[in-house]
TrEMBL record, chain A:
It comes from Sapayoa aenigma. This is Chloride channel protein. Residues 696-754 form the CBS domain. It is found in: Membrane. GO terms for cellular component: lysosomal membrane. Pfam families: CBS (PF00571), Voltage_CLC (PF00654). The gene is Clcn7. Keywords: CBS domain, Chloride, Ion transport, Membrane, Repeat, Transmembrane, Transmembrane helix, Transport.
TrEMBL record, chain B:
Pfam families: OSTMP1 (PF09777). This is OSTM1 protein. The gene is Ostm1. The keyword RNA-binding does not apply. The chain crosses the membrane at residues 226-248. It comes from Sapayoa aenigma (broad-billed sapayoa). One of its GO terms (cellular component) is cytosol. It comes from the Eukaryota.
């Protein structure tokens, strides 16, 4: 019963659900009519390309490597350390800048609104204060959103998914550019000042990565400046190592957690590790937190004190009552379960929202309007909660930054306002450290509920902002509530301090949302400065991850999937052994001959329907149409450089003075190679021949057709390949495996699923 | 009887009974006695002025004297040899070191009360701003009393309107002054001082505020619930409109599927199909 058309349909099984009729059509007329479907999670976008982590080992490369002697390699090694130090310092400085600007601008905003509220509380007309607050928020967020939406959309969100993809080997356009960094930094300042339910910690990781990518190249294409240094590092392999160092430095600056940063790079990003790289990354992280620490301590007026290692500081957790006993472990584990469930709920809600946003809110102006609305609603919700709250607490010294009296008696402040009328970082620390009794359970319950929905709604807006702090805040609020109710239940026995439960709740909630394990444990441990918390935090995060994974996947993975990124996980899907390279590969392959006519090359490169990046080079056999034996592999970027420099056989014979092409010419063009349209090739030149043997990679990785998918996957993932040629037993090219061919197999709910390719 | 025994012992020591026993020089003993008297007086003062808090106003003289006495012990050098100076024999020759402990206790209490904040820089007498504040405070208390005098039913919850009306001016002044003091203190606070005002001022303000807004119920803020509800429901309504309109009017983004170039071999498809069926 297996007709060819049914085969084709089975090949497309991924989007089984809605579009049965379109499928019918498509199978009959496969090429005539482009098949349009609504965006869904089971797509792979053509927009994303792979990075070349594998060096093209052509003759030029070998010559250069041979020329470098032992001493020169030592210099390269020293340069690597210098770059890492610079990454650390600059990341720390950027973090300082963000912190100081946010502190001042947010302080200004809250003072203005507070004065206004105080004025109108006495005279009446609080609705004006509400309007003022909402307008201020909305206008600040509007600026933040406009720069992201119109100038650099890739700066939206926390940037962690993007960096994860980059380190996985996917080239996200614009992700490590200077422009992105500027927009990211300004955007995050504006969105935090705008009072959104966001944090500035996640974007630090992206910022660190951009800084690393920029410094290691010794030039900025955005500024059109080339400092003529670090030219050796101008390739994807080297850049990747520095980017992972930058990400680690970012984490380290954000949380004051250098070890956590290194582990974050290891857990979330790294595909390729060795101990020298780890040591260098650790160096960069330490430098970064130290820079932040010393600059901030000078700024706060107590130089050499070094008491603020991160953007967020959880405060000291070393007092007597913050200790825990063995009886509390089961309670912590239970909190982990709660965190997992709430995290899964958060992710599921955010999934639907993101899907809606991708499908309907894709125009920049709509995105800006949405962000403004969220900002206004956040202010309104905060105001209404404060307005309705009757929870008054006496002012104790200056522990509260902006005490709002509102309807409280003189000398008291509204305790809902400490949670809502403050930057989220400060609220988190208040929840951890305010003495027992500072919040009543009703306040905490309402706050958790409201903030949960606000944070969920906010994540995925077109503003640059992170999800770490809101998650911590939600978790700290319900954790504190949990602690208070525990001491009610036990009639105030040993478990007195709710701050400890707030910390565990925060860990559980964050673990439930982002599903990080090792690195998050260490980050939390370092941020609290208390190693003995390691054990309960680990248990909480484990439970949260197990429970959460039962429902939906982590927030970052979810967003990567929704962006249709061809992301390769650690292993091939478990049930994929039955597939072989033959079924996985794309075929037929566009091959080039070793000595090829320029016209053919130009035509192949200009063909928009097959936008290939790697071309197997086969033996020149002009008379046969048959595919001949594989000789090497050449990349689009290399061909473009060759065409640009007109390295043609005929010209080489004509002009004696012609300079030989060096590896430097390829590096100078990296990473933005000009498109083929910008290269002019005249009719005469089209008839010339081009000799690829010197430039192609003569030893590309190949697999036989019978290799199983997991085997191909392992080779591809472990070596960071971009193209893997499939050959038959006569070494003739039969197919090509690329990232998208492998990434389209995914383990879904009903077993192995296949994703389809789509133009986005 | 106990005192008599003590005196006897002192006399015996003074007579220089066994020469090899370490003894306290007479100068040192008088210093110690003075310190003991001073600390007793300070304790007495602090205890008496605990409620309502008048520590800094009343006890700063005692405290200053005690500090001086402690200082003279710490500095004093006995007339015999270097090794027998008073500081050593009083302060550090036993495990308990009670003099140090006592002095530390007073210092800590003084710090916690933040008395330095409402004293003059040389800590002689109250600072001008504090004097002003206390004047105003007394004035408002007098005002409260004055306006409540004619009334018999002190405890009835309502009907304090007269107090509220007549004392509003003084109270507002007091409150403003307090806020000013606090703000000044916070600005100066970055140069090492803590952010609290001294306990006398804080307590006085607390008492007044409690009387004003709890007992007399004078500060009734205007609550304008209706406009707030109107404005907030308007703002909360906007996103619904936005999402609905973008759902209805915005063109849904479509993705164009690309057919991969691939061999469709029978075996694999059978495999996949088996998995699905």
């Amino acid at each position: 019963q297996l007709t060819p058309s049914s085969f084709l349909r089975i090949g497309q099984l991924s989007n089984v659900d809605l579009n049965e009729d379109i499928h019918e059509l498509e199978t009959e007329l496969p090429r005539q009519r482009p098949n349009e479907i609504p965006h869904n999670e089971k797509l792979l976008s053509l927009k994303y390309e792979s990075l070349d982590y594998d060096n093209s080992e052509n003759q030029l490369f070998l010559e250069e490597e041979r020329r470098i002697n032992h001493a020169a390699f030592r210099t390269v090694e020293i340069k690597r350390w210098v770059i890492c130090a610079m990454i650390g310092i600059l990341t720390g400085l950027v973090a300082c800048f963000i912190d100081i600007v946010v502190e001042n601008l947010a302080g200004l905003k809250y003072r203005v609104v507070k004065d206004n509220i105080d004025k109108f509380t006495a005279k009446g007309g609080l609705s004006f204060s509400l309007l003022l607050w909402a307008t201020l928020n909305a206008s600040v967020v509007m600026v933040g959103s406009v720069i992201v939406a119109f100038i650099e959309p890739v700066a939206a969100g926390s940037g962690i998914p993007q960096i994860k993809c980059y380190l996985n080997g996917v080239k996200i356009p614009h992700v490590v550019r200077l422009k992105t960094l500027v927009i990211k930094v300004c955007g995050v300042i504006l969105s935090v000042v705008g009072g959104l339910a966001v944090g500035k910690e996640g974007p630090m990781i992206h910022s660190g990565a951009v800084i690393a990518a920029g410094i290691s190249q010794g030039r900025s294409t955005s500024l059109k400046r080339d400092f003529k240094i670090f030219e050796y590092f101008r390739r994807d392999t080297e850049k990747r190592d520095f980017v992972s160092a930058g990400a680690a430095a970012g984490v380290s600056a954000a949380f004051g957690a250098p070890v956590g940063g290194v582990l974050f790079s290891l857990e979330e990003g790294a595909s390729f590790w060795n101990q020298f790289l780890t040591w260098r990354i650790f160096f960069a992280s330490m430098i970064s937190t130290f820079t932040l620490n010393s600059v901030l301590s000078v700024y706060h007026g107590n130089a050499w004190d070094l008491s603020s290692p991160g953007l967020i500081n959880f405060g000291r957790f070393d007092s007597e009552k913050m200790g825990y006993t063995i009886q509390e472990i089961p309670i912590f584990i239970f909190m982990g379960v709660v965190g997992g469930i709430l995290g899964a709920l958060f992710n599921a809600l955010n999934y639907w929202l993101t899907m809606f946003r991708i499908r309907y809110i894709h125009r920049p102006c709509l995105q800006v309007v949405e962000a403004m609305l969220v900002a206004a609603v956040t202010a309104t919700v905060g105001f209404v909660m404060i307005y309705c709250s009757r929870d008054c607490q006496p002012i104790q010294g200056s522990s509260v930054a902006y005490p709002l009296q509102l309807f409280c008696a003189d000398g008291e402040y509204n305790s809902m306002a400490t949670a809502f009328f403050n930057t989220p970082e400060k609220s988190v620390v208040n929840l951890f450290h305010d003495p027992p009794g500072s919040y009543n359970p009703m306040t905490l319950g309402m706050f958790t509920l409201m903030y949960f929905f606000l944070a969920c709604w906010t994540y995925g807006l077109t503003v640059s902002a992170g999800v770490f702090i809101p998650s911590l805040l939600i978790g700290a609020a319900w954790g504190r509530l949990f602690g208070i109710s525990l001491s009610y239940l036990t009639k105030g026995s040993i478990w007195a301090d709710p701050g400890k439960y707030a910390l565990m709740g925060a860990a559980a909630q964050l673990g439930g949302i982002v599903r990080m394990t090792l690195s998050l444990t260490v980050i939390m441990m370092e941020a609290t400065g208390n190693v003995t918390y390691g054990f309960p935090i680990m248990l909480v995060l484990m439970t949260a991850k197990i429970v959460g994974d039962y429902f939906v996947e982590g927030l970052y993975d979810m967003h990567i999937q929704l962006q249709s990124v061809p992301f390769l996980h650690w292993e091939a899907p478990v049930t994929s052994h039955s597939l072989t390279a033959r079924e996985v590969m794309s075929t037929p392959v566009t091959c080039l001959r070793r000595i090829e006519r320029v016209g053919t090359v130009v035509d192949i490169l200009s063909d928009t329907s097959s936008n290939h990046n790697g071309f197997p080079v086969v033996e020149s056999n002009p008379d046969t149409t048959q595919v001949a034996g594989l000789r090497g592999l050449i990349l689009r970027s290399q061909l473009i450089v060759l065409l640009k420099h007109k390295v043609f056989v005929e010209r080489a014979n004509l002009s004696l003075v012609q300079r030989r092409l060096k590896l430097k010419d390829f590096r100078d063009a990296y990473p933005r190679f000009p498109p083929i349209q910008s290269i002019h090739v005249s009719q005469d030149e089209r008839k010339c021949m081009i000799d690829l043997s010197e430039f192609m990679n003569p030893s590309p990785y190949t697999v036989p057709q019978e290799a199983s998918l997991p085997r191909v996957f392992k080779l591809f993932r472990a070596l960071g390949l971009r193209h893997l040629v499939v050959v038959d037993n006569r070494n003739e090219v039969v197919g090509m495996v690329t990232r998208k061919d492998l990434a389209r197999y995914r383990l879904g709910k009903e077993g192995l699923e296949e994703l389809s390719l789509a133009q986005t | 009887a106990l005192e008599a025994a003590e005196e006897l012992a002192e006399e015996l020591w003074g007579a220089g009974l066994p020469g090899d026993l370490p003894e306290l020089e007479p100068e040192c003993r008088s210093l110690l006695a003075a310190f003991a008297k001073g600390s007793a007086a300070l304790t007495d003062c602090l205890g008496r002025r605990a409620r309502p808090v008048r520590l800094c106003q009343g006890c700063h003289g005692h405290y200053r004297r005690l500090l001086a006495q402690y200082g003279s012990i710490a500095r004093a050098v006995g007339n015999s040899s270097e090794s027998h100076n008073c500081a050593k024999s009083i302060l550090t020759s036993d495990r308990l070191q009670i003099v140090v402990t006592i002095s530390e206790f007073f210092n800590e209490t003084w710090e916690a009360a933040n008395c330095a904040n409402c004293l003059k820089n040389n800590s002689e007498g109250l600072s001008n701003s504090t004097e002003e504040f206390l004047d105003l405070f007394n004035k408002s208390l007098t005002c409260f009393e004055h306006n409540l005098q004619g009334r018999t039913d002190y405890l009835s919850p309502n009907n304090y309107t007269e107090v509220c009306k007549n004392c509003n001016e003084t109270y507002t002044k007091l409150n403003d002054l307090y806020n000013d003091l606090q703000r000044m203190n916070r600005q100066g606070g970055e140069s090492g001082h803590s952010a609290h005002l001294c306990i006398d001022v804080e307590d006085a303000m607390n008492i007044t505020r409690k009387l004003w807004s709890r007992t007399f119920n004078c500060s009734v803020p205007c609550s304008d619930t209706v406009p707030v509800i109107a404005v907030s429901s308007f703002i909360l309504f906007l996103p619904i409109v936005f999402y609905l309109s973008s759902f209805l009017h915005s063109k849904q983004k479509k993705r164009i599927l690309i057919l991969p170039k691939r061999i469709q071999s029978n075996a694999s498809l059978v495999n996949i199909q088996e998995k699905y069926s």
